[in-house]
Amino acid sequence: xxxxxxxxxxxxxxxTTAKSFNEQKNLIKRLFKGNTVLCETCKQPLTLIxxxxxxxxxxxxxxxxxxxxxxxxxxxxIL
Length: 79
What we know:
The chain is of the alpha+beta class. The protein contains one helix and three strands. The chain has one helix at residues 11-32, and strands at residues 47-49, 61-63, 70-72. The protein has a three-stranded antiparallel sheet with strand order 1-2-3, with helices on one face. A hairpin with a 6-residue loop joins strand 2 (61-63) and strand 3. The chain is extended, with a radius of gyration of 19 Å. It starts with 10 loop residues before the first helix and ends in a 7-residue tail after the last strand.
């Protein structure tokens, strides 16, 4: 009697995830450099929101006005 085991191939998922991560990382780098980057969906400029001394309890990351792009980042202000 032979038993066949089903193996899940995660290589495609891993490649897709790595590509998406690298695209987001590069997008964030361009915003940090001061470049204008548009949302792929609504074509509105993306905004990078980072912590400041006055505002330390907010959602930080990269967003467009319509929230088509919503990349939340874990950031903290270091003084």
